[in-house]
Amino acid sequence: MMVGGEGLLNDGVPYTNENLEESVDLEEEVEYICWEKSVAGIGLLTDHGKKLHGWDKEDYEYSYNIGKGRLMKEFRDFAVGNIGLDYNSKVHGADDKIRITFSTMSSASPARRLTFKKQIQNVKELYANDASVIIEEYNLADLDAKQQVEIHMKTNVMVTAAGGGAVTSMFLPDGAALILYYDSLGTNGNTKRPIGHPARLDWDYFNNMAYVRTSWLPIVGMDDDALEVFTGIVEMEVENYKSFRMKTER
Predict the structure, then answer these.
(1) Is the pLDDT of residue 65 over 50?
(2) Largest CA distance in the chain
(3) Are 15 and 6 a contacting pair, CB within 8 Å?
(4) Which domain of life is it from (predicted)?
(5) Can you give the pLDDT at residue 54?
(6) What pLDDT is attached to residue 188?
């Protein structure tokens, strides 16, 4: 087990890179190591490994998380249970509605700070006469962590911008769909400078999150022909779920 790094975190909490595994001898009494605040990880599961989020072209040369879909799902279930929720909750909620959820204004980057106004309007028009489909929109930054997890757990189709604001998509349930809008011009979130290629941030994680179907759409053109593509993807995912539900209810 690796714990932290060396020095102080931003809030002044000390951290260390000490490898606790090397000093453990099962034949001897285990020495307990305690911290008031700490973060521990197994190292195997990460959003992108040694690579960056997807700012550099080199980030797309190989996949770190290929074949780790089951591990991601197990981690998701553990995290859900750890905050007192039922990780076995199905993709449909207690009211058995199909939910399409929009995460609006989810990024601090202007290029990815999206309202999804036209997308929401299109989907509402599409399902205006279908009482089984509910369209919801949230600014997740206004909600606490548990509320965000609960929203994702009852969502069938999640629409958000790629980036840090999309990380809670890991809490989507089995069979859900994730639609990520990425910055097709590629503006570095730290330097604010164009990088000259699309930035499909954390693609390595989302593409290998095997319990969720992930689609990527470019922000540029999202109001033109791509809007029809988006609506088509949503319609396909809703029909997929309706078909799945009919089979399981037989």
Answers:
(1) yes
(2) 68
(3) yes
(4) Eukaryota
(5) 67
(6) 62
242 class by beta-carbon count within 10 Å (0-12 exposed, 13-18 middle, 19+ buried): middle
Q: 244: Cβ–Cβ under 8 A, 6 or more apart, which residues? A: 175
DSSP letters of the chain? -EE--SEE-TTS-EE---BSSTT--TTSPPPP---SS--EE-SS--SSTTS-SSSSGGGGSS-SSTT-HHHHHHHHHHHHHHTT--TT--SS-TT--EEEEEE-S--SSGGG----HHHHHHHHHHTTT-TTEEEEEE-GGGS-HHHHHHHHHT-SEEEEESSGGGGGGGG--TTEEEEEEEBSS-B-TTT--B-SS-B-TTHHHHHT-TTEEEEEEESTTTTTHHHHHHHHHHHHHHHHHHHHHHHHH-
Confidence at residue 67, expressed as pLDDT on a 0 to 100 scale: 85
The structure tokens 């009852």 sit at 154
Write the CB contacts of 105 (distance below 8 Å, at least 6 apart in sequence).
113, 114, 115, 139, 141
Say what the pTM is. 0.74
Q: Is the pLDDT of residue 22 over 70?
A: no
Residue given tokens 């990088």 in the structure block: 195
181/193 Cα distance (integer angstroms) = 19
Average pLDDT over residues 165-173: 89
Average confidence (pLDDT) over 110-127 = 84
pLDDT of residue 88: 74
Q: CATH 3.40.50.360: does it fit domain 98-249?
A: yes
Distance (Å, whole) CA 100 – CA 160: 11
Tracing tokens 């307990």 back to the chain, one arrives at 32
